[in-house]
Amino acid sequence: MIIKYNQLNDLKKNKSASNNSELQKYFKEKILIESFNEETRQIIQSQQLLFKNKNIISPKAIQKTSESQMDELQNKSTIQIVFQHEEKLHNFLFAYEATTDQLLQQARKIVPTISAVVTTNSNLAIDYYLQLQNQKLSVFQGRIITVQGVPGLLALKSKTGLRDFIFIKCIGVGGFSRVYLVKKKQSSRFYAMKIIDKKIIIEKKIENIIENERNILAVTQHPFLNKLEYALECPNHLIFITEFCAGGDLLYYLQKYHVFTETQARFYIVEFILGLIYLHQLDIIYRDIKPENILIDITGHIQIADFGLAKPTRNEYAYSFCGSPEYMAPEMLTNQGHNQQLDHYCLGVLLYELVVGQPPFYSEDINKIYENIILKEVEFPKNNTLSNEIKDLIIRLLDKDQKSRIGHQGGLLEILDHKWFENVDLIKFLYRKVTPPFQPDIFKPPALLKEYKDGDLDLIRRLLDRNVQGTTMFQNFYYDQSVELDIRLEQQKFLKFYHQLIEQQNSKMQRRQKIKFMRKSRLV
Question: Is pLDDT above 80 for 350?
Fold first, then answer.
């Protein structure tokens, strides 16, 4: 029910309303009340202010039962957002648990044709957050933000191209690529756009690596894997457009806090393992485990990114020499051939770095790193406070013989059977129900703090120039996740199988915990 400002005079005439100073103050603020549930409406009806419209924003009851608590309800349990359309301001009150989806739905009641809502002052961080699906509006509690609608645009062509995006800023520079934060004009959704120069691809002879990355990204779909939305081929560049993770990467947090506690490290390792199990079940070796490839989304959960070194393989061994020196496994350095056990080793390196602060065999001399990996046994800093369980797990993951390394028989599920994961509930992790150790600041997200400007304007100009000539490198490079229905169906089928696998492993772990608890109870 919308109570318009010009109705206030009528309300003032109502005796019961005028006798209640709290209600007078409440309505004089010109608030359009649209988020009350049945219980709250009954409170207002007791003041003879009848609400005829039954629209409900919040699915849960706002637990307030007395007139004297109305101000508290407004200040502590509701979120105020102002929607501006033309010259009118519409004030919305949302219950604490309301979401961004519900904000858009409410705005569409006023302007049905809008595709999104954005801030009137173009706040990049908030605009990004508002485009995410089903995110809590409670982050805005104590703030009043003003938003406006983005006119819906009709899709007049079959393929998405570069001109469908607005370039915002460069957020990353790699050896042969640049990464831009972009916004799609039609939806106002934000993405990360990785731009790779074809000249460098040819010079470095990495055509197979780029094509392989595109194909792996196209067939994978998992909550802990960075999602490919579009792949484009331009005259002189190849483009990957993926989910944008505003939380930065794990390296950012490792540099900020230096070392993690075992509990903090366990959170990231479990989420990473769940993503890695998915890849291994698809017979894909990741081969590029390191903190900077573990992105953090705005909610604090991980997304594994950069599949340039990933390799589809079944039972055969791979012999490529690739990866970061500190994370290379002994079998890669000795050219013995490697399989999924290589990822197990690198997982041990990652875990060690998270709780110690640097990789286990680190040296400023790369050759010394290689020598240490092959010959030196892992050591822990003196006076460390690490548990025996995590030390044992790291030692077994860093076993130089891949045939005796933990996981050589049962894969990553065997690793999850280790005592260090004893109290882990995999289902809670999989459904992102475990609270992350670090929560990115949505108003100053780490991924938006950096900007690289050198060469930006020239590159964007060349990308958008219709007269630029070039050659086609791949026949079927184009990809649009929204129209690849066959691929999405296969992804869903495999994801269902994957969930069953994780549920079985979780049940096994829970039974083990229960048996251990019962044994302890008997001893007591």
Answer: yes
